[in-house]
Amino acid sequence: MLPYRPFEFPHTFQPAVIMNTSPLDLPKRPTLRHLLLLFAAGTLGTGTAVANQWINADEDHLWSNENNWTAGIPDSGLAWINGTTDEARIDYEAPDITEAIIGQGASDGSVRMQEGGSLTSSHINLAFGDGWNGTWNHDAGTLNAGDLRLGRQDGGTAEFNLSGGTVNATGLRLNSTSGTDGEDQATGIANVTGGALNLDNHLRLNSRAGGATTAQTVTVSGGTVTSSRDLQIGRGDMEGGTATVNLSETGSLSVGNIEMATSGSGGTGASTLNVSGGTLDASGNLRIGHEGSDADVEISGGTVTIENQTRIGNVGTGTTANGSLTVTGGNVTLKALTAVGTVGEDMGRGSITIGGDANFTFGESNASIVLREGVGNSFTVNGSQATINSLRAAGTALEFNNGNDVNLNFDSGGISTVDLTADIRFGGDDVTLNIDATEASEGVYALFTFNDYWDTGHTTFGTENLDFAAGMDGWINYNANDISLEIIPEPSTYALLFGAGIFGIVLLLRSRRRNRL
Known about the structure:
Strand content: 35-45%
Mean pLDDT: 82
Number of helices: 2
Shape: elongated
Oligomer: single chain
Distance between the termini: 167 Å
Structural class: mainly beta
Low-confidence stretches: 1-49, 178-183, 500-517
Number of strands: 37
Helix content: under 10%
């Protein structure tokens, strides 16, 4: 009989020693919810590391509570706020992290910065991909970040809301990465109603190719947004997507250049800048329709100042572009050259329309408005309430060229006069003047006032299309210092008036005779 020996595993099958080395530390008595979230954290990683996930275990929503994370409070690396719709709230000075991904992999995610809160992170990604949504609500406190990326990959909606406090970031990008399918691009939304957003780099909407059917929107109705670089509205090849910036109420937007529809390879999307209030300052150029799809600037209020050139329907690298500037209110100052359309094999087309009660000033720095040669470039004035004037002291302040349309639409008060302190120029005989004076009464109306004609060889419009009210007629007067429209009753109307006058006199005399009897 063999002596008793305790059972031993063979050398090749020793039981593993279970060490508590996982970064996903569980509570001492884990619940089923913790176990499920732990499993999710281990299976939803990026393939390189297990992320520290937000779980809101104590349901108090506090970022500072270590029980609300699968691996304690993040103090470096990657923090995932997803897998749950419970909002994470920062109300203290949180430790620095490398990156935050809000809304990716399992479900939506949201973070709220509150009074007393602060966080520093190299990147903030909202709606990283896979159709999930991410939200950052900033009520107070301070966020110091590298890039703010709204809509990092395919699908989903990313929303950034700033109502107070300060956000300092390298840049803000909406729809910042190309997707695998043109119809699965992310949607980015940024709303600024208060506080300060300070950017060291560009503010970009649709900054990568493939933005089909998506709408990237930035709305500034309060607070300040400042970028030391450019505002790029529709930077990528949008393929049908839209990019819109809205400025209203007390919002302030200060940037370098404003570039709209800068795809470089065409596209069918649309870029729009709407200003109904607030203040917009651009220290560089304004390019409306630059190298690509359509772009429109619509100003109905507020104050807009462009320090450098304005180019509407600008052509860049072999692509056509269409742009429009419509001003119906507010105060607009274009200080340098304003070029409408371009000349070349691939011609850009542009238009300027001024009306309402707008105060439109151009031509500081000895610059002018020039409509380039080509059909489709137009200059339009609607109604009599706008103030339109140039500050240029000498040289050409306003120039029309062959193929241009000049449209003047009267209201019951007449038409706003374009006051030029310098010269007007006709760069050819094929400039068309279209006047709708169907609401105008008899009188003489100044259309343009100026110092002189720049080119004595072309001192009139090539074609005049004049439309008057019934019974009225008129013509254009070309004078030394102004161009005016004179409206008078038609000869037949004079005859009717003359006849009515004689008939009135006869009736008056007969009445007097009866009174003498």
